[in-house]
Design goal:
Elements: H1 2-22, H2 26-52, H3 60-76, H4 89-107, H5 112-132, H6 134-137, E1 143-144, H7 157-179, H8 182-192, H9 194-199, H10 204-230, E2 232-233, H11 235-238, H12 241-254, H13 261-280, H14 285-300, H15 305-323, H16 328-334, E3 339-340, E4 346-347, H17 348-358
Antiparallel strand pairs: 1-2, 3-4
C-alpha cells in the first residue's frame, strides 16, 4: 500500500510539473497559478487551525502583510521586474511571521469563540492601518510592483506557476513534518483536550504560538507571490475578508487537519471561483456559492471529503473481510486510522487522529 501511495505521489508531481506544457493556454495557466497559491495558503492555515483546533478568521492579515512587504521591498530596493522579486518571497514571509509573534501571543491568551473574534479584529485593524499609514502603504492609492516587460503574454504565467508549485511543495513538506513529529502530536493533543495536554506536560502556549507563526510565514509568502502576479496591491485586495472565507472553506471541504484535504479543497473551489468570475464577472456570485457550499458541507460532509472517504473505505474493507470469514484483517483495520466495532461501526474520534497521516 505504501508503494502505491509513493507511486501515486510521484505521478501527481510529474503531472503538476508538465501541466503548463500540456495546457499552454494563458487563461488555463493563470487559473492554475491562483489554484496553487490558494492550495499553499490553505495548507499553511491548516498547520495551525487544523492541528490545534483554533479556527483563525484573520489570516488575511498575514496575506496582506506579505504582499505589502513584497511591494515595499521592490520599491525601496529598486528591484526590476523579472526573476529577482521571487528571491524576496521568503523575506516577505518572514515579515509576516515577525508580525505574527506579538499578534499571536495576544490572540492565543483566549480560546474558542473569543479567539475567533480577536483574529477578525486584528485583521480589520491592519486593514485600517494600510489605509492610514500613507507614508508606507500609499493609502487607498496602493502600491505597484515591477512589471516583467521581457516576458511575453504567453510566457508570463509560467514562472509564477512553478514558483507557486514550489511553495506548495514546501508547505506540504512542513505540514507533513509537523504532523509526524513529537511536536505535532502535542498540537493534536491540544486539539483533542488542551487542559489534559497541559496536564500531561505539553507546553501548550509555546506550541500554539510556533504553529501560528509557521502558518503566518507560509501565508505571507503566498501574499507576496500573489501581489507580484497581479502587479499591484491595495488595502481592499491585500486585506480581503473573502480570503479567509475561501481558505477556511477549502480546508473544511477537503478535510480539516489532514495533509491532502486543503489541497483537494483548493483544487475544487478555486477553479470553480475563477470560472464563475470569467463567466459572470466580478459581481460576487461566487460568494453566494461559497455560502451555499459551506452549508452543504456542514450538513452532508461535516468532516470533509478525505476523512469521509477514508472512513467509508475502512468500513468497506471490514465488510469484505467479514464476508470472507477472515478475522485477522479486523485488527489491522482498527490500527489503520479507525476503530472498528463488532457490528462494523467505526469510531470517528480515532479517525481524526490518524487520517492526516494515512492520506
Amino acid at each position: 500500500m505504501k508503494t502505491f501511495k509513493t507511486i501515486g505521489l510521484v505521478l501527481v508531481l510529474v503531472l503538476a510539473i508538465i501541466f503548463p506544457l500540456i495546457f499552454p493556454n494563458p487563461a488555463v495557466t493563470t487559473i492554475a497559478v491562483f489554484t496553487l497559491i490558494f492550495a499553499a495558503a490553505a495548507t499553511g492555515w491548516n498547520i495551525f487551525s487544523g492541528y490545534t483546533g483554533y479556527v483563525s478568521l484573520g489570516h488575511a492579515a498575514y496575506f496582506g502583510l506579505g504582499g505589502y512587504a513584497m511591494a515595499i521591498l521592490c520599491q525601496d530596493w529598486k528591484v526590476p521586474g523579472g526573476y529577482g522579486p521571487f528571491l524576496l518571497v521568503p523575506l516577505a514571509g518572514l515579515v509576516a511571521a515577525i508580525f505574527a509573534i506579538p499578534l499571536g501571543w495576544i490572540a492565543l491568551r483566549v480560546r474558542r469563540h473569543t479567539f475567533v473574534v480577536i483574529t477578525i479584529a486584528m485583521f480589520f485593524i491592519l486593514q485600517l492601518l494600510s489605509y492610514n499609514l500613507r507614508n508606507i502603504t500609499n493609502g487607498s492609492t496602493g502600491l505597484g510592483l515591477p512589471i516583467p516587460t521581457d516576458w511575453s503574454g504567453d510566457f508570463f504565467a509560467f514562472p509564477f506557476y512553478y514558483v507557486a508549485l514550489a511553495l506548495l511543495i514546501v508547505s506540504v513538506a512542513i505540514a507533513w513534518w509537523v504532523r509526524n513529529s513529537k511536536y505535532g502530536l502535542g498540537l493534536l493533543a491540544i486539539r483533542d483536550d488542551e487542559d489534559r495536554a497541559l496536564g500531561l506536560g505539553v507546553k501548550t502556549g509555546p506550541s500554539k504560538l510556533v504553529a501560528f507563526v509557521i502558518s503566518a510565514f507560509i501565508v505571507g509568502m503566498v501574499g507576496a507571490i500573489w501581489a507580484y502576479f497581479v502587479e499591484s496591491i491595495y488595502p481592499p485586495s491585500g486585506f480581503d475578508a473573502t480570503f479567509d472565507v475561501a481558505v477556511v472553506l477549502m480546508a473544511y471541504l477537503g478535510g480539516l487537519g489532514t495533509l491532502s484535504g486543503p489541497i483537494l479543497g483548493a483544487f475544487i473551489l478555486e477553479p470553480a471561483q475563477q470560472y464563475f468570475t470569467l463567466q459572470y464577472g466580478a459581481n460576487g456570485y461566487y460568494l453566494v456559492i461559497y455560502g451555499a457550499l459551506f452549508l452543504i458541507i456542514m450538513l452532508l460532509l461535516p468532516r470533509g471529503i478525505v476523512p469521509t472517504l477514508n472512513e467509508r473505505w475502512v468500513k468497506f474493507q471490514y465488510a469484505r473481510h467479514r464476508q470472507g470469514g477472515n478475522a485477522t484483517p479486523v485488527a489491522a483495520l482498527s490500527t489503520s486510522g479507525m476503530s472498528v466495532g463488532p457490528n462494523g461501526s467505526s469510531s470517528p474520534g480515532s479517525a481524526e487522529r490518524k487520517d492526516g497521516v494515512n492520506l
